[in-house]
Specification:
- There is one protein chain.
- By secondary structure, this protein is of the alpha+beta class.
- It has two domains: 247 residues, Neuraminidase (6 Propeller), CATH 2.120.10.30; 46 residues, no CATH class.
- Helices cover 19% and strands 35% of the residues.
- The protein has a four-stranded antiparallel sheet. Strands 9-10-11-12 form a four-stranded antiparallel sheet. It has a four-stranded antiparallel sheet with strand order 13-14-15-16, with no helix packed on it.
- The termini are far apart.
């Protein structure tokens, strides 16, 4: 039952005053529409845009603050994948056909357009499109190929929410079947499983991660709420069912495929390993000699080790 039509409600966060309420036009809301996530492009206040994903009737409703108007964009990449509709969370098996769900906006480019990263919930794939095409319905319709398939997260890796940290360029996203939150660095040209990192995974505390955001102080925030247990079973009121997680972004991505900091500790580890290998070789060749080795020997061993790692 729909009691109120979908609306955008916009507040001034400094005064808590309601600035505007925009009700989606009837022709942009379909019988099975459901708007579960929204991404805001607001680097230029007057030219702010909102992108609302319709998971029930696949589409994006784009809203312009300047025009106080909205339009509906459709594309087959918004649709659920029939091979990815089976879910299993905490012993509950169910089928969901949720369409476009995860939405994450990059920092703007030189022309002040962002990249929107998106995916249906019932899908293993990630997609992208420049907001240059979304800001005008005619342009979007005439440029079907502007929507790009980036790659796959792999089997059992359906994702609901996502968010891009615009400072590091890291895309964070949930993995609902795996009770985990993962990441991918958008500066990486290839969206492959080996380029994706796990931020956090826990069979008890991270059951159904339901929202992800990065604040203005570079902290990652994650909510989990055990929704499938509530829908298909019963919540145990003696357990903690709703959780809020937080960590600095740089700490969350540290030692993952999304790490942006120089890993000098890894280099030191290889150098020390090379020294130990050299000492072992010298000890075997000259058992009675000192284990002190010449620098050139260490460098040659390290060179061989690096060459081995590169292959």
């Amino acid at each position: 039952t729909t009691k109120y039509p979908p609306s955008l409600i916009i507040y001034d966060l400094k005064t808590d005053n309601l600035l505007r309420k925009y009700v989606f036009p009837e022709d942009q809301v379909k019988q099975d529409s459901g708007f579960a996530n929204i991404a805001i492009e607001d680097t230029d206040c007057d030219k702010t845009y909102a992108y609302a994903g319709d998971l029930g009737k696949p589409a994006i409703v784009v809203y312009s603050w300047e025009k106080n108007d909205s339009w509906r964009i459709t594309h087959h990449y918004f649709n659920p994948d029939p091979l990815a509709c089976d879910f299993s969370v905490k012993g509950h098996n169910f089928s969901w056909t949720d369409a476009i769900f995860g939405l994450g906006l990059s920092a703007p480019n030189a022309d002040n357009f962002s990249t929107l990263y998106f995916h249906p919930m019932a899908s293993y794939n990630e997609f992208s499109v420049s907001t240059e095409y979304l800001r005008n319905q005619t342009v979007a319709d005439d440029n079907f190929d502007a929507f790009k398939l980036l790659g796959s997260r792999g089997p059992n890796a359906q994702s609901s929410v996502s968010f891009v940290d615009r400072k590091t360029g890291v895309l964070f996203y949930s993995l609902v079947n795996l009770n985990a939150v993962a990441c991918w660095r958008t500066s990486n040209n290839k969206y492959l499983m080996k380029n994706q990192g796990r931020i956090y995974m826990n069979e008890e505390t991270m059951v159904y991660p339901t929202d992800i955001k990065v604040d203005y102080e570079d902290n990652l925030w994650i909510l989990s709420n055990r929704l499938p247990i509530w829908m298909y079973g019963k919540l145990d009121l003696n357990e903690v069912n709703f959780r809020v997680f937080s960590a600095p972004v740089v700490h969350a991505i540290s030692h993952t495929a999304c790490d942006i900091t120089p890993r000098s500790d890894i280099l030191e580890k290889f150098v020390n390993k090379a020294k130990n290998i050299t000492k072992d070789i010298v000890a075997k060749v000259k058992p009675n000699s000192s284990t002190t080795t010449k620098p050139i020997t260490v460098l040659l061993t390290l060179s061989c080790l690096v060459r081995f790692l590169a292959t």
